[in-house]
Amino acid sequence: MKTTNSIQALILTGLFCLTLLPFAFSQNKLDSLETQLDQSFGKDKLVLLNELIPLHLAEQNTKEALRYARLATSLAETIISADNQLIQAGDHYLKPLSFLQLGQVNQQLGKYADSKVAYEKALTEAQLNKTPDIAKSALQGLRDVTALEQVDEKQKKGFLGRAIRDIGVAIDKTSDDLGIVATLKLAKMHENNQNYEKAAKKYEQVINQLRDQGDWEQVEELREHLAEILALQGNIPGAVIALSELKQEKQKENDDRGAAVIQNRIDEVKLRPAKPPIAPPVPVLPQDIEIANAEKQALRMRGIAERAENNQDFQASLNYYKQYLTIEQTLAEQERLQELTLLEKAHQIERQEQEITLLRQNDEISQLNLTKSQVELERQLVLKRSLVGGLALSGMLAFSLFFLYRNKQRDHQKLGVAYQDLESTQIQLKSAEKRIKSLLNQQLSGAVANELLTGTGVSAVQRKFVCIMFLDIRNFTPYVEKLSPEEIIEYQNKVLGFMIDTVHKRKGIVNQILGDGFMATFGAPVSAGNDCEQAYLAAEEIIRTVKEKSESGEIPPTRIGIGLHAGQVVAGNVGTRDRKQYSITGNPVIIAARLEQLNKEFGSTMVISKEVCDHLPKEVKAPMAFSPVPVKGRSEPVEIATV
């Protein structure tokens, strides 16, 4: 009962996936089943394959569904048999189910002939395994395929006529390498015998098998060769169509060179005569006469089946149709046996050629052995003559090596002492370098200190566009009059410490600490690319932090003034050879200092020039009202805004 329910569930799943694709399983379900498939074997793998087929159909992935269906039928043929004791009788339904789903996939792809073969196989296996649900579905599938073919043929022929037309094609669905090699050998044999029609059919078989395996490179080569076979057969239009399809694929892949090569082949084929070459006469064998008689008998049965169908005598039509199928299957088997005979003859010829080659190689080896013996005798004579001289030379060489070894040993000892001295000196240099870096970082900003240590950029005087910040602590002098020197230093460290850290964080350097303030530069010696933005954000952060620390009591109540201005300056080391300082010089420095002093006049916290604001991105700068203000030391007024 459980087996019957499982069969019905799987059949219903396959049928519903064909009509209700939008309601199929999710991609997560597919990924989970495919992960399990890689780790499964035998019956478990066959069950997973039958679950994956309808899911891929639901995702409109018919290529994967066809691949899994073929794997399922191949695996079912291998493991499901009466002799396999590992498979229980209740699991034999998987074999007809696999063929049923293969028929559904081929039906979805429009391959009605292949779909019929699969449905018929499913019907036969279902009757043998007594699974009526699958048999019913297979029979319904045959009816559906018949109806679809009637639509395609515009109802000109009946079911039997269209079914018989597709029967008789020898289909070898074996995808292993041995089958491909065998079919390819038959194709080449027919080609060598100038039987281009059979050669073309075999090449098409190999191409289909290679497509199933995904070997697209060899498929492309064989398709081009198939076009050559069609041309040799005299089918020039067919060859041109085949090459044109290859050219279109090359163009889709943007392979202009490959497309040009195919076009040259097309032009060459068009120049060939359309008349087919005269094939050599083929002797008529007795088995050929029997095959011809059997084909006539098959055609007679086909005609009787069609007439019975037209007379609505479906039972008789089905009986004659089965006789026709039996004859066609026998003919296909005989053709397969003939091909196997041809293959065996080819193998015999290959073996004979290999034996002849082996005999020739043995003869050559014998001659080489004689020559080798003579050479060996001569070599032994030469070896005896040179042995004495070699021994004398070896003694001299041993003495020389001993002498060199003693000298190298002494040199090695000296090198060991020198290496220890060098390692000690290197440790001292690293320690001194660390102390120098520490001292430079205490006295200079990190960027200037690094430039001084590396010796790049700072030594040369450069013209740069920078943003200058002047910061002043308001009422500093009255406040510190009552403090001791230690308290003054502590206050400066508390207030100026986080301000200087903010400048460094924003890629700026502090050029001078003025007691009650400092001067900072953004853009020299190294530019961040958005120096005005960094300076503006640093000023905002300093103002905000001073307010928070003052309100929280972390520092005494403190007010500051900041001036920001940007422009071209001269930057570099200034001083004597023994004492130099990295300096920023230029009119923008003076203007920035003047702008900072304007905070007292306007009662503001920050004064910013329009030159700085013009270099700020829209998302950073706040709405500001600029007005021209005369500045001491400059003939023209400066446009500023206050914050």
From TrEMBL:
Family matches, as CDD domains: CHD
Domain Guanylate cyclase: 467-596
Membrane topology summary: Multi-pass membrane protein
GO cellular component, one term: plasma membrane
Pfam families, per the entry: Guanylate_cyc (PF00211)
Matches recorded under Gene3D superfamilies: Nucleotide cyclase, Tetratricopeptide repeat domain
Claim: Transmembrane helix is one of the keywords in the record: yes
Cellular compartments annotated: Cell membrane
Keywords annotated in UniProt: Cell membrane, Coiled coil, Membrane, Transmembrane, Transmembrane helix
SMART domains: CYCc, TPR
Transmembrane segments: 387-405
Coiled-coil segments on the chain, per record: 186-213
InterPro entries, sorted: A/G_cyclase, Adenylyl/Guanylyl_Cyclase_3/4, Nucleotide_cyclase, TPR-like_helical_dom_sf, TPR_rpt
GO biological process: cAMP biosynthetic process; intracellular signal transduction
GO molecular-function terms, A-Z: adenylate cyclase activity
UniProt key word Membrane: yes
Protein name: Guanylate cyclase domain-containing protein
Organism per entry: Flavilitoribacter nigricans (strain ATCC 23147 / DSM 23189 / NBRC 102662 / NCIMB 1420 / SS-2)
